[in-house]
Amino acid sequence: MSNQTIADTDTPDPWMVAAHNRFYLTFTCGDRVEIWMSHSMENFRNCKKIIAWKPPPATPWVVDLWAPELHYLNGRWYIYFCGAHPEVGNACHRTLLLRSQSQDPMEAGAWEFLGQMKGLPDHWNIDATVFFLPRTQKLYCCYSGWPLGDNSDRQQDLFLIELETPEVARPETLTCISRAELPWERADGGTHGVNEGPTFVSMPGGFEGIIYSANGSWTSDYRLALLQLVGDDPLKESSWRKRPTPLLVSDRAKGGPFGPGHASFLPSPYGDGRVYCIYHATEHWGEGWNNRKARVLSFGLEHFHPQAQPMCCALSISGLWSGGVSVSNVGGVAGNRSPQQGAQQIQHSREQGATLIDKLGGKLWSKLRDFS
């Protein structure tokens, strides 16, 4: 993939899914929840857009609407996001839900606000994601939260909870699965521990677990990290193993992009075991929360190895990736092919009646239907 920005406007906390032979993108807008639709996962510049929900004035959840995620569960579309009360601000951030009455997520009038997600403890929580685990046949929600009883705003850990339905959690199953304790997970001289933006990734043959963001999202030291599921019961903290090195970082000496984080993932449609990582980053060092735009990279299983070294997102821009391999010279790997090879692959796919979007959209859609 190109690792170039996929839109001209800021698209922080990008979440992308494939369905209906299209790509759907949502991201943090602040005062509303939008969904964008495109036929290309790397180009949302002239795409269809809707506002799925904008809170009415003088209602409780109207400020700091962050990190929406679009999921198809039990035959319905949901959006998980968080918001805060204007009179309280950040300290009252809670996970909120939208549900659609339509099978088309782009039908703006079909979205309804359900309020807070039921069953979560009453503490600061953001960045909720949901996933189905085939081995247990259960649905789970993972989110970033302050430790229970700690309102200092100095620590964000990852919590996992089993879901009874897409709208209701089982409070007795709550488990903290990751604590921001490693030096590179802590911002501002180590005073703020940050684990946030979790998403579940399963790669055939080697990795199953949570990819999350660490360090301060307001800094260029933001990065992606790995938490591998190694035990049978995901609701036990001992079932999770944190890799001591991050997955994706930036390096001021190598150039931008900087502060890679808050990613979503889609499987490669080519059967090569790779995944596409949609993440945000800034163009320049030290831009904080400004100029965060979504980009796409291709990862292989080797990047998720427990002893692997972190990758620098600047290497793809410079033509280097996977330990010095030239992106433009690698053939037969999704996302790492020359324009000529890409054109040949697309033509071949069309001849077989399955373009990239057909394959990827169909693959994701079939998985989504498994939840219904």
Automatic annotation (TrEMBL):
The keyword Signal applies. It holds the Pfam family Glyco_hydro_43. The keyword Hydrolase applies. InterPro entries: Glyco_hydro_43, Glyco_hydro_beta-prop_sf. One of its GO terms (biological process) is carbohydrate metabolic process. GO terms for molecular function: hydrolase activity, hydrolyzing O-glycosyl compounds. Belongs to the glycosyl hydrolase 43 family. PANTHER family: GLYCOSYL HYDROLASE (PTHR43817), HYDROLASE, FAMILY 43, PUTATIVE (AFU_ORTHOLOGUE AFUA_3G01660)-RELATED (PTHR43817:SF1). This is Alpha-N-arabinofuranosidase. It comes from Fonsecaea erecta. The lineage of its organism: Eukaryota, Fungi, Dikarya, Ascomycota, Pezizomycotina.
